[in-house]
Predict the structure.
Amino acid sequence: MRDAATILRAGWLIRASEPPIADGALVAAGGRIVRVGPWRTIEPHVGPGDAVEHSPDSAVLPGLVNAHTHLGLSDMAGKFEPTENFPAWIGRLTARLMLRSAGTVRRAVETGRDLALAAGTAAGAEMTHDPRLADPLAADPLAEECARWTVFGELFRFGEKGVARVGRTAAALEDLARRTGLAVGLGPHAPYSTGPEVFMAARREADARGWPV
């Protein structure tokens, strides 16, 4: 006797590396996808205890991957008037960020995580330069099993100060990974904000630990 299954039938079933299936169905049991195919091939195997959800005007597709998120900024929406330029906006944002507690950051991360999950995001790369996100209190929401997140320490600055920051960021992320089980990595911000020596130092630190950049 097999476990009861949940069957999602939709107008289209979108697959990652094969053509889409019109009037397709996905069969899930025991927390796993066990079969996909046209409804005509799935229907004969539907049991009396199976739950069928039919959405003819919808599509079933793989979970989305967001390769650059700032979940920790989710509480900043609507907090700023427009500025004349980008540096002024960043200045206001940074000043406000430094006033937040780890608990505030946690709530922002939770909000962003839930919005991302509701939009179909199954995995993401969270970019942060806020040291409080290296606090498990703030990062715990990303360690839950509803989606797979990698936390990247964002790197700024030039010269010796920038290189020193790489080492401090890597140490904080190592501790975060050990305490939460989260995947971590290093993320140099941009050529206009991060010197080439910092990019190179990040690459060395990441390679030594097997981390992504």
